[in-house]
Amino acid sequence: MLEVSVSEAKRDFTKVLKAVQEGEAMIITKRGKPVGAMMGFDEFQKLRRLAAYNSLLQLSQDLSGCGTTATELYQQSRRELEEAA
User: pTM (2 decimals)?
Assistant: First the structure.
């Protein structure tokens, strides 16, 4: 993963964007400390899906001890949304 300073990223934005489009991820630094990152949109989407999946796994684990199934939770939520509409 490449590092680029904020000023370099501003100056060479087209080059940085091209590298990102070619699959390179970039860490953007300010005074030598990471402050952001750039990555391709496909990689970003993968991370979002992974985070959502992880949230579902955590919810499943949390629900396993309370006696409520995911289906029951979904159905109750659906009813509440329909009643509110």
Answer: 0.63
